[in-house]
């Protein structure tokens, strides 16, 4: 269950970032920036959950010798498109650029987590 352990650890990091974004939304005058980060990062967490679930199914299929299905790229792309559409519909409330940055959060967290775990395994 290593994929599940990775997902749990990365989910904790993303929840920490989300809590910081909520504090920024509440205590600064940059509500549209933090709303974009919150919205994009929330959808990024959803995409990470989809990826973890699909990878578990992928691993189970390989072990059982079944035909391997897609890892769900289309659904993750559709989530990104939804985020952009919503941010463009409400530009005064949700900043588009920070929504896109929020969408990339899970991938940034995955890379940082990889480097941290690699560094810790060398010790």
Please, could you describe this protein's structure?
The protein has 123 residues and is mostly helical. The chain has one domain. 84% of the residues lie in helices and 0% in strands. It contains five helices and no strands. The chain is flat and about 55 Å long. InterPro entries: ATP_synth_I, ATP_synth_I_Bacilli. Keywords: Cell membrane, Membrane, Transmembrane, Transmembrane helix. Pfam families: ATP-synt_I (PF03899).
First-residue to last-residue Cα separation: 23 Å
**Could you give the order of the helices and strands?**
HHHHH
What kind of sheet is the major sheet? none
Which regions contain 5 or more consecutive residues with pLDDT less than 50? Answer: none
- How many helices? 5
Helicity, in percent? over 70%
What does the oligomeric state look like here? single chain
What Rg is obtained from the alpha carbons, in whole angstroms? 16 Å
Average pLDDT works out at 91
Query: How much beta, percentage-wise?
Result: under 5%
Structural class: mainly alpha
Main location: membrane
Membrane topology: Multi-pass membrane protein
Pfam families: ATP-synt_I
Subcellular location: Cell membrane
């Amino acid at each position: 269950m290593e994929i599940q352990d990775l997902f749990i650890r990365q989910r904790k990091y993303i929840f920490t970032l989300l809590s910081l974004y909520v504090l920024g939304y509440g205590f600064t005058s940059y509500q549209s920036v933090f709303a974009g980060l919150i919205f994009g990062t929330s959808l990024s967490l959803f995409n990470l959950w989809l990826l973890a679930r699909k990878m578990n199914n992928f691993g189970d299929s390989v072990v059982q010798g079944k035909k391997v299905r897609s890892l769900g790229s289309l659904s993750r792309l559709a989530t990104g498109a939804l985020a952009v559409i919503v941010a463009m519909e409400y530009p005064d409330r949700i900043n588009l650029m920070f929504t896109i940055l929020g969408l990339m959060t899970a991938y940034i967290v995955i890379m940082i987590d990889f480097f941290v775990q690699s560094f810790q395994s060398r010790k």
